[in-house]
Amino acid sequence: MRIARFRLCLRYLRKRLAAHTVILIAVVAAVACSVGTQYGVKSLVDSLSAGPSRAGSVWLAFVFSCQ
Fold it and tell me: What is the pTM of this model?
């Protein structure tokens, strides 16, 4: 019974391969954007808390958080 369910799922995935591929790419892109934004905000906070000594890195962190 388990093998039949597995085969049914694989058949469904194969029939709609393009749609599942698009969904997978969209999820991976969303995760990458989320991680990039978290990294950018962390860098921005670190740069701003360091004071004027790291003023140049604030812009780099801002660019990372805006992508």
Answer: 0.66
